Amino acid sequence: MSKKRTVRSHTCGQLNAAHLGQTITLCGWVAKRRDHGGLIFIDLRDRYGLTQIVFDPALAGGDLAHDLAGRIRSEYVIWCQGQVRQRPSGMTNSKMPTGDIEVVCTDLEILSESKTPPFPIEEDLDVAEPVRLKYRYLDLRRPILQKNLLMRHRMLSIVRNHLDQNQFIEVETPILYKSTPEGARDFIVPSRLNLGSFYALPQSPQTLKQLLMISGMDRYYQVARCFRDEDLRADRQPEFSQIDIEVSFLDEEAFFPILESMIAKLWRETLGQEITLPFPRMPYSEAMNRFGSDKPDVRFGLELVDLSGVFEKSEFQVFRSALTPSSQNRKGSVRGIVVPAQAERFSRKDLDDLQSHASSFGAKGLLWIKVQANGELQSPAAKFFSESEKKSLADTLHLKQGDLVLIVADTRNKVVFDSLGALRLQLGSKLGMIPKVGEGKPAFLWVVNFPLLEFDDKEGRYYACHHPFTSPRPEFFEDFVAGRNLDQIQASAYDMVLNGVEIGGGSLRIYRPDVQAAMFKILGLSPDEAKEKFGFFLEALQYGTPPHGGIAFGVDRLAALLCGVGPIRDVMAFPKTQKGHCLMSETPSHVSPEQLVELGISVTRKSEVE
């Protein structure tokens, strides 16, 4: 085989009427082969498209190529040479960019043969995902997945260009790093040269990017690989990428426009959509009270309504218990959702299913009410309501005939918000109120003013809602350092949300050593523990730290939204299953006893751990 027979002059999506009469060479995979007796047709595929190749033994030089074409099967890799000609009248294909032409082959080389694939390489594929993941390299030949990866590439190219134009510097940070408590479990890596010591794979470059700010880098970004050893879902992977951004000497008012214009540029240059700027901002408390979520989908109604005032003196035990202050002087709430004029659509089984869904988010029950034609309330609990409560409920919710009301009450507001927020999304989907993925106008917003701390009743201590380097809002500094009113302190944290999906999250960081020390103390870290875990960082804070902050965008989630797909696995080249397995390479796998000895590691059986 000569070298020229592995080189192409054009791609399979390139040829058109402008190339008529030209002699060209193509290389690619055989997508389809059709034998019409005297003529053989082949659809040749590469990542650029398809070209129809014709083998005609009656043409000069075509007999040898025709004979060899008889051996070709799907997914063979071939080199062919021939002349571009117009397709016969009535045989054109307007759905293909190359549909007006075909190549008459006069020379052919089979570069590589193929076994029969375990599934056809085509767009609409009804094959179990485990099979596709096992043969991912074949799955990736499908145009839809190649299109997704090309979109991902285009997205990152646009982001890099935008950040470069705004004076950001791309800096790579280490993958082998120090284990630090940041929320999820670390993946740890043993050190052969330092037996008994371990590296950790970074959950994010959090402390490293802050150190870059201390170093004077001023504007940093990185497409960073991140690793978290946590239970997986369709939208989570043990390793993922994020667009990591950090800046100095900018507050939200100066930082947000840079990020918004980056997102607007992404949507404009990939989808051709113009995005309205600036994005609206919604305080965390409003998002929770209206939508039961800190990443609200604001494209439809069904908003939550606080009914605690309606039932503050209720004799109904469920409501009375929720609204009675606990020993920690906290009380819960009673909240509901009105589904207008849809009561008849919900059978008892439908309502039971909704109750089951709510219970999966911690709700002890779901109370339903249907408004009858005469204005009466049909509900298992209606007999416990006083007439004044019924009237107040109807007035507060502006109830009309046929309305359905769903109510959750609990001593913990988190349970109320989580369960009703999830019900709202389920109802919106069931009633066709939520546009399908990739459809409708995108609804961007910022959620701001998150709480800084969350108290865990079981542990009896506070946890950082974001991470331990998130700064309180400046007006709360004094109370925070003094340890006062910790439940009321807001964080300088912000999330960018699109259609109910968090696509980016960040905060202004703590840059004062006294505030950082106060944070560690509130979180229950002694000075010795803080020094052990973050000593290098605490030392760095004492050498002139600029005010700084940042954000991280999920690359995989952004790409999935731009591609109009659901699971992020569809925009990743080699994803893992929900159990963290790579079915293609059979990873994770065992290593040899010799490797374990060299690392000073002994493996404990699962039964011994349990």
Structural account:
By secondary structure, the chain is of the alpha+beta class. The protein has three domains: 10-112, OB fold (Dihydrolipoamide Acetyltransferase, E2P) (Beta Barrel), CATH 2.40.50; 146-282 and 443-580, Bira Bifunctional Protein, Domain 2 (BirA Bifunctional Protein, domain 2, 2-Layer Sandwich), CATH 3.30.930.10; 300-430, Gyrase A, domain 2 (2-Layer Sandwich), CATH 3.30.1360.30. The protein is 29% helix and 23% strand. It has helices at 62-69, 129-134, 136-139, 143-165, 206-214, 252-271, 284-291, 317-323, 348-359, 387-397, 413-430, 477-482, 513-522, 527-541, 555-563, 593-599, 606-609, and strands at residues 23-36, 39-46, 49-55, 77-86, 101-112, 169-170, 187-190, 198-201, 219-227, 239-248, 281-283, 304-306, 333-339, 367-371, 377-378, 404-410, 444-448, 453-456, 461-464, 493-498, 501-508, 548-554. Strand 18 and strand 19 form a beta hairpin.
Instruction: Report strand order across the widest sheet.
Output: 6-9-10-22-21-20-17-11
Q: State the low-pLDDT regions, or none.
A: none
What is the residue-mean pLDDT, rounded to a whole number? 92
Count helical runs.
17
CATH fold node name of the largest domain: BirA Bifunctional Protein, domain 2
Content-based structural category: alpha+beta
CATH superfamily (homologous) name of the largest domain: Bira Bifunctional Protein, Domain 2
Tell me which CATH architecture of the largest domain applies here.
2-Layer Sandwich
End-to-end Cα distance, whole Å, is 60 Å
Kindly state the percentage of residues in helix: 25-40%
Q: Give the C-alpha Rg.
A: 31 Å
What's the CATH first level of the largest domain? Alpha Beta
User: What kind of sheet is the major sheet?
Assistant: 8 strands, mixed
Strand content: 15-25%
Number of strands: 22
**Tally of separate domains:** 3
Shape: globular
